[in-house]
Amino acid sequence: MCLAVPGKILTILEEANLGLRRGKVDFCGIRKEVCLDYTPDARVGDYVLVHVGFALTIVDEQEAQRVFEALRQLDQLEELKEIAT
Amino acid sequence: MKFVDEYRDRSAVQQMAQAIRRTSTRPWTLMEVCGGQTYTIVKTGLQGLLPEGITLVHGPGCPVCVTPLEMIDRAVAIAQRPEVILCSFGDMLRVPGSTQSLFDAKSWGADVRIVYSPLDSLHLARSYPNREVVFFAVGFETTAPANAMAVWEAEREKIPNFSMLVSHVLVPPAMEAILSSPDCRVQAFLAAGHVCMVMGFEEYVPISQKYRVPIVVTGFEPLDLLEGVRLAVAQLESGRAEVENQYLRAVRRSGNRPAQERISEVFEVTPRAWRGIGEIPASGLRLRETYRQFDAESRFAVKIRHVEESKECIAGLVLQGQRKPFECTAFGIRCTPDTPLGAPMVSSEGACAAYFHFGRRNEDGNSIVSTATTGH
Q1: Does A64 sit within 8 Å of B197, measured CB to CB?
Q2: Helix pair angle (B257-266, B144-157), 10° resolution
Q3: What was the ipTM of the complex prediction?
Q4: With CB atoms counted within 10 Å of each terminal CB, which end of chain A scores lower, N or C?
Q5: Phi, psi (deg, nearest 5) at residue B47
Q6: Are B335 and B341 in contact (CB under 8 A)?
Q7: Searching chain B, which residue's CA lies closest to the CA of residue A76?
Q8: Closest approach of B242 to chain A, Cα-based (Å)
Q9: 3-state class of A5 per DSSP?
Q10: Residue A58: closest C-alpha in chain B
Q11: Given strand B188-192, what is the order of strands in its sheet?
Protein backbone atom coordinates (compact mmCIF):
# COMPACT_ATOMS: atom_id res chain seq x y z
CA MET A 1 0.00 0.00 0.00
CA CYS A 2 2.82 2.41 0.85
CA LEU A 3 4.64 1.61 -2.39
CA ALA A 4 6.38 4.68 -3.85
CA VAL A 5 8.20 4.53 -7.17
CA PRO A 6 11.07 6.80 -8.29
CA GLY A 7 10.59 8.65 -11.57
CA LYS A 8 12.22 11.55 -13.42
CA ILE A 9 10.30 14.77 -14.04
CA LEU A 10 10.14 15.50 -17.79
CA THR A 11 7.91 18.57 -17.86
CA ILE A 12 6.02 20.71 -15.37
CA LEU A 13 2.54 21.91 -16.30
CA GLU A 14 2.05 25.14 -14.40
CA GLU A 15 -1.37 26.03 -15.81
CA ALA A 16 -3.01 22.81 -14.73
CA ASN A 17 -6.70 22.20 -15.38
CA LEU A 18 -7.26 21.11 -11.76
CA GLY A 19 -5.52 24.06 -10.20
CA LEU A 20 -2.90 21.63 -8.90
CA ARG A 21 0.77 21.77 -9.90
CA ARG A 22 1.31 18.80 -12.21
CA GLY A 23 4.20 17.23 -14.06
CA LYS A 24 4.87 14.50 -16.57
CA VAL A 25 7.06 11.88 -14.87
CA ASP A 26 8.98 9.07 -16.58
CA PHE A 27 9.15 5.68 -14.85
CA CYS A 28 11.60 3.76 -17.01
CA GLY A 29 9.61 4.41 -20.19
CA ILE A 30 6.12 4.62 -18.65
CA ARG A 31 4.99 8.23 -18.47
CA LYS A 32 2.32 9.47 -16.11
CA GLU A 33 0.95 12.80 -15.01
CA VAL A 34 1.72 13.33 -11.34
CA CYS A 35 0.65 15.96 -8.79
CA LEU A 36 3.65 18.05 -7.69
CA ASP A 37 1.86 20.21 -5.09
CA TYR A 38 3.71 18.52 -2.21
CA THR A 39 7.14 19.00 -3.82
CA PRO A 40 7.11 22.75 -4.64
CA ASP A 41 10.91 22.78 -5.09
CA ALA A 42 10.96 19.97 -7.68
CA ARG A 43 12.40 20.94 -11.06
CA VAL A 44 12.59 19.26 -14.47
CA GLY A 45 15.26 16.52 -14.29
CA ASP A 46 14.73 15.80 -10.57
CA TYR A 47 13.82 12.30 -9.44
CA VAL A 48 10.75 12.16 -7.20
CA LEU A 49 9.17 9.29 -5.25
CA VAL A 50 5.57 8.94 -6.38
CA HIS A 51 2.75 7.35 -4.37
CA VAL A 52 -0.83 7.06 -5.77
CA GLY A 53 -0.23 9.89 -8.23
CA PHE A 54 1.53 12.29 -5.82
CA ALA A 55 5.23 13.16 -5.68
CA LEU A 56 6.07 13.08 -1.96
CA THR A 57 9.82 13.72 -1.89
CA ILE A 58 12.72 14.67 -4.15
CA VAL A 59 15.28 11.85 -4.20
CA ASP A 60 18.58 13.15 -2.79
CA GLU A 61 21.09 11.86 -5.32
CA GLN A 62 24.10 12.38 -3.03
CA GLU A 63 22.53 10.52 -0.13
CA ALA A 64 21.57 7.73 -2.53
CA GLN A 65 25.29 6.91 -2.90
CA ARG A 66 25.97 6.90 0.84
CA VAL A 67 25.22 3.22 1.47
CA PHE A 68 27.81 2.17 -1.13
CA GLU A 69 30.38 4.47 0.50
CA ALA A 70 29.50 2.91 3.88
CA LEU A 71 30.09 -0.58 2.44
CA ARG A 72 33.50 0.47 1.12
CA GLN A 73 34.45 1.86 4.54
CA LEU A 74 33.24 -1.28 6.33
CA ASP A 75 35.37 -3.40 4.00
CA GLN A 76 38.45 -1.22 4.49
CA LEU A 77 37.96 -1.43 8.27
CA GLU A 78 37.82 -5.22 8.06
CA GLU A 79 41.00 -5.33 5.95
CA LEU A 80 42.79 -3.15 8.52
CA LYS A 81 41.65 -5.49 11.30
CA GLU A 82 42.99 -8.49 9.39
CA ILE A 83 46.35 -6.79 8.87
CA ALA A 84 46.51 -5.91 12.57
CA THR A 85 45.95 -9.53 13.58
CA MET B 1 15.25 1.46 -12.81
CA LYS B 2 17.48 4.13 -11.25
CA PHE B 3 17.32 4.25 -7.40
CA VAL B 4 15.89 0.70 -7.40
CA ASP B 5 18.18 -1.72 -9.24
CA GLU B 6 21.39 -0.71 -7.47
CA TYR B 7 19.80 -1.55 -4.10
CA ARG B 8 19.05 -5.09 -5.34
CA ASP B 9 22.65 -5.81 -6.37
CA ARG B 10 23.58 -9.29 -5.20
CA SER B 11 27.19 -8.56 -4.20
CA ALA B 12 26.28 -5.38 -2.28
CA VAL B 13 23.52 -7.29 -0.46
CA GLN B 14 25.92 -10.09 0.45
CA GLN B 15 28.53 -7.58 1.61
CA MET B 16 25.95 -5.98 3.90
CA ALA B 17 24.87 -9.39 5.23
CA GLN B 18 28.50 -10.12 6.06
CA ALA B 19 28.75 -6.81 7.92
CA ILE B 20 25.73 -7.86 10.01
CA ARG B 21 27.34 -11.21 10.82
CA ARG B 22 30.44 -9.35 12.03
CA THR B 23 28.34 -6.97 14.16
CA SER B 24 26.10 -9.47 15.95
CA THR B 25 27.15 -11.61 18.89
CA ARG B 26 23.76 -12.38 20.48
CA PRO B 27 20.22 -13.27 19.39
CA TRP B 28 17.95 -10.32 18.65
CA THR B 29 14.34 -9.94 17.46
CA LEU B 30 13.57 -7.06 15.11
CA MET B 31 10.24 -6.01 13.64
CA GLU B 32 9.85 -4.42 10.22
CA VAL B 33 6.74 -2.27 10.50
CA CYS B 34 5.58 -1.96 6.90
CA GLY B 35 3.95 -4.66 4.77
CA GLY B 36 5.94 -3.52 1.73
CA GLN B 37 9.12 -4.33 3.68
CA THR B 38 7.69 -7.73 4.70
CA TYR B 39 6.99 -8.47 1.04
CA THR B 40 10.62 -7.76 0.02
CA ILE B 41 12.05 -9.72 2.98
CA VAL B 42 10.00 -12.84 2.29
CA LYS B 43 10.19 -12.63 -1.51
CA THR B 44 13.96 -12.22 -1.61
CA GLY B 45 14.68 -14.57 1.29
CA LEU B 46 16.61 -11.97 3.29
CA GLN B 47 16.02 -13.87 6.55
CA GLY B 48 18.22 -16.64 5.12
CA LEU B 49 21.16 -14.22 4.82
CA LEU B 50 21.03 -13.20 8.48
CA PRO B 51 22.92 -14.87 11.33
CA GLU B 52 20.82 -17.58 13.00
CA GLY B 53 20.11 -15.56 16.14
CA ILE B 54 18.59 -12.59 14.32
CA THR B 55 14.85 -12.97 13.78
CA LEU B 56 12.67 -10.65 11.76
CA VAL B 57 9.03 -10.55 12.86
CA HIS B 58 6.45 -8.83 10.72
CA GLY B 59 4.51 -5.79 11.81
CA PRO B 60 1.00 -4.38 11.40
CA GLY B 61 1.88 -2.10 8.45
CA CYS B 62 -0.64 -3.42 5.97
CA PRO B 63 -3.62 -1.04 5.91
CA VAL B 64 -5.80 -3.55 4.06
CA CYS B 65 -5.08 -6.14 6.77
CA VAL B 66 -6.04 -3.90 9.71
CA THR B 67 -9.25 -2.43 8.23
CA PRO B 68 -12.07 -3.75 10.49
CA LEU B 69 -14.60 -6.22 9.14
CA GLU B 70 -17.43 -3.79 9.95
CA MET B 71 -15.82 -1.13 7.74
CA ILE B 72 -15.70 -3.56 4.78
CA ASP B 73 -19.36 -4.49 5.41
CA ARG B 74 -20.17 -0.77 5.43
CA ALA B 75 -18.36 -0.27 2.10
CA VAL B 76 -20.25 -3.24 0.61
CA ALA B 77 -23.59 -1.88 1.85
CA ILE B 78 -22.86 1.56 0.38
CA ALA B 79 -21.69 -0.01 -2.92
CA GLN B 80 -25.00 -1.89 -3.20
CA ARG B 81 -26.98 1.36 -3.47
CA PRO B 82 -27.98 1.90 -7.11
CA GLU B 83 -26.84 5.53 -7.29
CA VAL B 84 -23.32 4.78 -5.96
CA ILE B 85 -20.01 4.24 -7.77
CA LEU B 86 -17.61 2.92 -5.11
CA CYS B 87 -13.88 3.23 -5.80
CA SER B 88 -10.82 2.00 -3.97
CA PHE B 89 -7.34 0.54 -4.48
CA GLY B 90 -7.27 -2.98 -5.94
CA ASP B 91 -6.20 -4.85 -2.78
CA MET B 92 -9.15 -3.57 -0.81
CA LEU B 93 -11.71 -5.07 -3.17
CA ARG B 94 -10.74 -8.69 -2.47
CA VAL B 95 -10.86 -8.53 1.34
CA PRO B 96 -13.74 -10.66 2.61
CA GLY B 97 -16.37 -8.92 4.70
CA SER B 98 -18.71 -10.93 6.91
CA THR B 99 -20.78 -12.08 3.93
CA GLN B 100 -19.04 -10.73 0.82
CA SER B 101 -16.12 -8.73 -0.53
CA LEU B 102 -16.44 -5.64 -2.71
CA PHE B 103 -15.59 -7.82 -5.72
CA ASP B 104 -18.47 -10.17 -4.78
CA ALA B 105 -20.74 -7.12 -4.59
CA LYS B 106 -19.51 -6.11 -8.07
CA SER B 107 -20.33 -9.56 -9.46
CA TRP B 108 -23.87 -9.08 -8.09
CA GLY B 109 -24.22 -5.82 -10.01
CA ALA B 110 -22.77 -3.13 -7.72
CA ASP B 111 -20.71 -0.45 -9.51
CA VAL B 112 -17.31 -1.00 -7.87
CA ARG B 113 -14.18 0.34 -9.55
CA ILE B 114 -10.43 0.13 -8.99
CA VAL B 115 -8.61 3.45 -9.15
CA TYR B 116 -4.89 4.28 -9.12
CA SER B 117 -5.28 7.58 -7.26
CA PRO B 118 -8.04 9.23 -5.20
CA LEU B 119 -7.91 12.02 -7.80
CA ASP B 120 -9.26 9.48 -10.32
CA SER B 121 -12.40 9.07 -8.20
CA LEU B 122 -12.78 12.85 -8.14
CA HIS B 123 -12.58 12.80 -11.94
CA LEU B 124 -15.35 10.15 -11.98
CA ALA B 125 -17.52 12.41 -9.80
CA ARG B 126 -17.07 15.24 -12.32
CA SER B 127 -17.90 12.89 -15.22
CA TYR B 128 -21.03 11.38 -13.59
CA PRO B 129 -22.81 14.31 -11.89
CA ASN B 130 -25.98 12.22 -11.43
CA ARG B 131 -24.20 9.43 -9.54
CA GLU B 132 -22.73 9.41 -6.01
CA VAL B 133 -18.99 8.64 -6.17
CA VAL B 134 -17.55 7.23 -2.93
CA PHE B 135 -13.84 6.69 -2.39
CA PHE B 136 -13.01 4.02 0.23
CA ALA B 137 -9.92 5.63 1.80
CA VAL B 138 -7.66 3.20 3.60
CA GLY B 139 -4.01 3.72 4.30
CA PHE B 140 -1.29 4.97 6.59
CA GLU B 141 0.34 8.40 6.72
CA THR B 142 1.88 7.77 3.28
CA THR B 143 -1.54 7.81 1.59
CA ALA B 144 -3.10 10.54 3.74
CA PRO B 145 -1.72 13.49 1.69
CA ALA B 146 -3.33 12.11 -1.49
CA ASN B 147 -6.69 11.51 0.18
CA ALA B 148 -6.58 14.89 1.93
CA MET B 149 -5.92 16.57 -1.43
CA ALA B 150 -8.92 14.82 -3.04
CA VAL B 151 -11.27 16.12 -0.31
CA TRP B 152 -9.69 19.59 -0.33
CA GLU B 153 -10.09 19.75 -4.12
CA ALA B 154 -13.72 18.53 -3.92
CA GLU B 155 -14.44 21.37 -1.49
CA ARG B 156 -12.61 23.93 -3.65
CA GLU B 157 -14.51 22.87 -6.78
CA LYS B 158 -17.76 22.31 -4.82
CA ILE B 159 -18.29 18.79 -6.14
CA PRO B 160 -21.45 17.69 -4.29
CA ASN B 161 -21.58 14.05 -5.47
CA PHE B 162 -18.16 13.05 -4.07
CA SER B 163 -17.61 11.55 -0.62
CA MET B 164 -15.06 9.47 1.24
CA LEU B 165 -15.37 6.45 3.52
CA VAL B 166 -12.37 7.08 5.76
CA SER B 167 -10.52 4.24 7.50
CA HIS B 168 -7.12 5.85 7.94
CA VAL B 169 -4.62 4.57 10.49
CA LEU B 170 -1.44 5.95 12.06
CA VAL B 171 1.75 3.98 12.65
CA PRO B 172 3.34 5.29 15.90
CA PRO B 173 0.33 4.44 18.16
CA ALA B 174 0.37 0.86 16.78
CA MET B 175 4.08 0.56 17.57
CA GLU B 176 3.35 1.70 21.13
CA ALA B 177 0.49 -0.83 21.40
CA ILE B 178 2.89 -3.60 20.38
CA LEU B 179 5.60 -2.43 22.80
CA SER B 180 3.23 -2.19 25.76
CA SER B 181 1.87 -5.73 25.30
CA PRO B 182 3.21 -8.13 27.98
CA ASP B 183 3.94 -10.66 25.20
CA CYS B 184 6.04 -8.22 23.17
CA ARG B 185 9.08 -9.90 21.57
CA VAL B 186 10.31 -6.87 19.64
CA GLN B 187 13.71 -5.45 20.62
CA ALA B 188 14.14 -3.01 17.73
CA PHE B 189 12.05 -1.59 14.90
CA LEU B 190 12.74 -0.98 11.24
CA ALA B 191 10.32 1.96 10.86
CA ALA B 192 8.30 2.41 7.67
CA GLY B 193 10.36 4.60 5.33
CA HIS B 194 7.53 6.05 3.28
CA VAL B 195 5.42 6.91 6.34
CA CYS B 196 8.45 8.88 7.59
CA MET B 197 8.91 10.46 4.15
CA VAL B 198 5.61 12.23 4.88
CA MET B 199 5.71 12.65 8.67
CA GLY B 200 9.45 12.83 9.42
CA PHE B 201 10.72 10.91 12.43
CA GLU B 202 10.60 13.29 15.41
CA GLU B 203 7.53 11.51 16.81
CA TYR B 204 9.52 8.27 17.19
CA VAL B 205 12.07 9.82 19.57
CA PRO B 206 9.82 9.66 22.69
CA ILE B 207 8.83 6.05 21.84
CA SER B 208 12.47 5.03 21.48
CA GLN B 209 13.33 6.68 24.80
CA LYS B 210 10.30 5.44 26.77
CA TYR B 211 10.65 1.77 25.75
CA ARG B 212 14.45 1.81 25.31
CA VAL B 213 14.09 0.47 21.79
CA PRO B 214 16.21 1.31 18.72
CA ILE B 215 14.12 2.61 15.79
CA VAL B 216 15.76 2.75 12.35
CA VAL B 217 13.85 4.49 9.55
CA THR B 218 14.36 2.03 6.70
CA GLY B 219 13.75 1.82 2.95
CA PHE B 220 12.19 -0.97 0.91
CA GLU B 221 14.87 -2.56 -1.23
CA PRO B 222 16.97 -5.55 -0.05
CA LEU B 223 20.09 -3.43 0.56
CA ASP B 224 18.04 -0.82 2.49
CA LEU B 225 16.50 -3.51 4.70
CA LEU B 226 19.82 -5.17 5.48
CA GLU B 227 21.43 -1.83 6.28
CA GLY B 228 18.47 -1.11 8.59
CA VAL B 229 19.11 -4.44 10.31
CA ARG B 230 22.83 -3.66 10.60
CA LEU B 231 22.20 -0.27 12.21
CA ALA B 232 19.59 -1.70 14.61
CA VAL B 233 21.83 -4.62 15.61
CA ALA B 234 24.78 -2.24 16.14
CA GLN B 235 22.60 -0.20 18.52
CA LEU B 236 21.40 -3.31 20.39
CA GLU B 237 24.93 -4.69 20.71
CA SER B 238 26.22 -1.43 22.18
CA GLY B 239 23.21 -0.89 24.46
CA ARG B 240 21.97 2.23 22.63
CA ALA B 241 18.33 3.04 21.86
CA GLU B 242 18.08 5.88 19.36
CA VAL B 243 16.17 6.93 16.27
CA GLU B 244 18.35 6.60 13.17
CA ASN B 245 17.64 7.26 9.50
CA GLN B 246 18.82 4.64 7.01
CA TYR B 247 16.57 5.94 4.20
CA LEU B 248 18.40 9.25 3.75
CA ARG B 249 17.72 9.56 0.02
CA ALA B 250 13.98 9.92 0.69
CA VAL B 251 13.39 10.89 4.32
CA ARG B 252 14.11 14.27 5.94
CA ARG B 253 13.92 14.68 9.72
CA SER B 254 10.84 16.92 9.60
CA GLY B 255 9.20 15.05 6.69
CA ASN B 256 7.12 16.77 4.03
CA ARG B 257 5.68 19.97 5.56
CA PRO B 258 3.21 20.91 2.78
CA ALA B 259 1.78 17.36 2.93
CA GLN B 260 1.49 17.48 6.75
CA GLU B 261 -0.29 20.84 6.55
CA ARG B 262 -2.85 19.52 4.05
CA ILE B 263 -3.44 16.38 6.18
CA SER B 264 -4.13 18.39 9.32
CA GLU B 265 -6.32 20.86 7.47
CA VAL B 266 -8.63 18.08 6.26
CA PHE B 267 -8.28 15.32 8.89
CA GLU B 268 -8.17 15.07 12.69
CA VAL B 269 -6.89 12.32 14.95
CA THR B 270 -9.45 9.85 16.28
CA PRO B 271 -9.49 6.47 18.07
CA ARG B 272 -9.62 3.66 15.51
CA ALA B 273 -10.29 -0.10 15.70
CA TRP B 274 -7.56 -2.28 14.11
CA ARG B 275 -8.66 -5.63 12.76
CA GLY B 276 -7.18 -8.39 14.90
CA ILE B 277 -5.79 -5.94 17.48
CA GLY B 278 -8.76 -3.91 18.74
CA GLU B 279 -9.25 -0.21 19.36
CA ILE B 280 -6.09 1.86 19.78
CA PRO B 281 -6.48 5.42 21.13
CA ALA B 282 -5.54 8.29 18.78
CA SER B 283 -4.51 5.83 16.06
CA GLY B 284 -6.60 6.98 13.10
CA LEU B 285 -7.75 9.95 11.06
CA ARG B 286 -11.25 11.20 10.29
CA LEU B 287 -12.58 14.21 8.42
CA ARG B 288 -12.65 17.49 10.34
CA GLU B 289 -15.99 19.19 11.02
CA THR B 290 -15.40 21.67 8.15
CA TYR B 291 -15.08 18.79 5.66
CA ARG B 292 -17.70 16.49 7.26
CA GLN B 293 -20.10 17.02 4.32
CA PHE B 294 -17.79 14.71 2.36
CA ASP B 295 -18.07 11.92 4.95
CA ALA B 296 -19.68 8.87 3.28
CA GLU B 297 -20.41 7.31 6.68
CA SER B 298 -22.90 10.06 7.55
CA ARG B 299 -24.11 10.62 3.97
CA PHE B 300 -25.21 6.98 3.62
CA ALA B 301 -26.80 5.75 6.84
CA VAL B 302 -26.36 2.01 6.39
CA LYS B 303 -27.00 -0.47 9.22
CA ILE B 304 -24.11 -2.80 10.05
CA ARG B 305 -24.35 -5.85 12.33
CA HIS B 306 -21.49 -6.62 14.70
CA VAL B 307 -19.80 -9.76 13.40
CA GLU B 308 -17.32 -12.23 14.87
CA GLU B 309 -13.99 -12.97 13.17
CA SER B 310 -13.05 -16.54 12.20
CA LYS B 311 -12.11 -18.38 15.41
CA GLU B 312 -9.21 -20.18 13.75
CA CYS B 313 -7.55 -17.11 12.17
CA ILE B 314 -4.60 -15.76 14.20
CA ALA B 315 -4.15 -12.61 12.07
CA GLY B 316 -4.07 -10.39 15.18
CA LEU B 317 -1.09 -12.27 16.62
CA VAL B 318 0.67 -12.31 13.23
CA LEU B 319 0.17 -8.54 12.88
CA GLN B 320 1.75 -7.98 16.30
CA GLY B 321 4.75 -10.18 15.53
CA GLN B 322 3.78 -12.79 18.14
CA ARG B 323 3.25 -15.63 15.62
CA LYS B 324 4.57 -16.42 12.15
CA PRO B 325 1.93 -17.18 9.47
CA PHE B 326 2.93 -20.87 9.17
CA GLU B 327 2.18 -21.33 12.90
CA CYS B 328 -1.54 -21.01 12.09
CA THR B 329 -3.42 -24.32 11.74
CA ALA B 330 -5.42 -22.99 8.78
CA PHE B 331 -2.39 -21.65 6.84
CA GLY B 332 -2.26 -22.99 3.30
CA ILE B 333 -5.09 -25.47 3.99
CA ARG B 334 -8.33 -23.73 4.93
CA CYS B 335 -6.81 -20.28 4.36
CA THR B 336 -5.26 -19.45 0.97
CA PRO B 337 -5.25 -16.27 -1.19
CA ASP B 338 -8.26 -17.72 -3.09
CA THR B 339 -10.20 -18.55 0.09
CA PRO B 340 -8.78 -16.22 2.77
CA LEU B 341 -9.98 -16.40 6.38
CA GLY B 342 -8.18 -13.18 7.32
CA ALA B 343 -6.98 -10.11 5.48
CA PRO B 344 -3.19 -10.80 5.75
CA MET B 345 -3.81 -13.66 3.28
CA VAL B 346 -5.43 -11.23 0.80
CA SER B 347 -3.10 -8.30 0.28
CA SER B 348 0.25 -8.94 -1.40
CA GLU B 349 1.71 -7.03 1.55
CA GLY B 350 0.02 -9.24 4.12
CA ALA B 351 2.52 -11.48 5.90
CA CYS B 352 0.39 -14.62 5.34
CA ALA B 353 0.11 -14.08 1.58
CA ALA B 354 3.85 -13.32 1.33
CA TYR B 355 4.69 -16.60 3.08
CA PHE B 356 2.13 -18.48 0.98
CA HIS B 357 3.62 -17.20 -2.29
CA PHE B 358 7.32 -17.12 -1.46
CA GLY B 359 7.91 -18.65 1.96
CA ARG B 360 8.20 -22.28 0.94
CA ARG B 361 10.83 -21.49 -1.62
CA ASN B 362 13.01 -20.12 1.16
CA GLU B 363 12.57 -22.76 3.84
CA ASP B 364 16.05 -24.10 3.07
CA GLY B 365 17.41 -20.63 3.80
CA ASN B 366 18.50 -20.03 0.20
CA SER B 367 18.26 -16.43 -0.82
CA ILE B 368 16.70 -15.61 -4.16
CA VAL B 369 17.98 -12.02 -4.32
CA SER B 370 19.14 -11.07 -7.79
CA THR B 371 19.62 -7.97 -9.87
CA ALA B 372 16.75 -9.23 -12.00
CA THR B 373 14.27 -9.09 -9.13
CA THR B 374 11.11 -7.51 -10.46
CA GLY B 375 7.69 -6.73 -9.07
CA HIS B 376 7.94 -4.67 -5.91
Answers
A1: no
A2: 60
A3: 0.92
A4: C
A5: -55, -35
A6: yes
A7: B19
A8: 19
A9: strand
A10: B250
A11: B54-61, B28-34, B188-192, B215-218, B243-245
CA distance A63 to chain B (A): 5
Sorted by where each starts, the structural domains of chain A and their CATH numbers stand as 5-60 (2.30.30.140)
Quote the CA–CA distance of B279 and B302 in Å, as a whole number: 22
Candidates 3.40.50.720, 3.40.190.10, 3.40.50.11740, 3.40.640.10; CATH matching B65-171+255-299: 3.40.50.11740
A67-84 residue pLDDT tens: 999 999 888 888 888 788
CA-CA distance, B361 to B365, in Å (whole number)? 9
β-pair type (B84-88, B28-34) = unpaired
Q: For residue range B47-90, list pLDDT tens digits in order.
A: 999 999 999 999 988 888 899 989 999 999 999 999 999 999 99
Contact of A28 with chain B, judged by CB distance below 8 Å, is answered with yes
Other C-beta atoms closer than 10 Å to the C-beta of B26 total 10
Q: Rounded to the nearest 10 degrees, how much is the dihedral formed by the CA atoms of B227, B232, B233, B237? A: 140
* pTM for the structure as a whole: 0.92
- The predicted-structure confidence for B204-245, as pLDDT tens digits, reads as follows 999 999 999 999 999 999 999 999 999 999 999 999 999 999
Which residue of B3, B4, B142 is in closest CB contact with A51? B142
Chain A residues closer than 8 Å to B197 by CB: 4, 49, 56-57
Chain A residues closer than 8 Å to B349 by CB: 1
Contact A49 B197 (CB under 8 A): yes
What distance, in Å, lies between the first and last C-alpha atoms of chain A? 49
Note whether A54 contacts B117, CB cutoff 8 Å: yes
Three-state secondary-structure class, residue A18: coil
Mean pLDDT of chain B: 92
CB of B240 within 8 A of CB of B283?
Answer: no
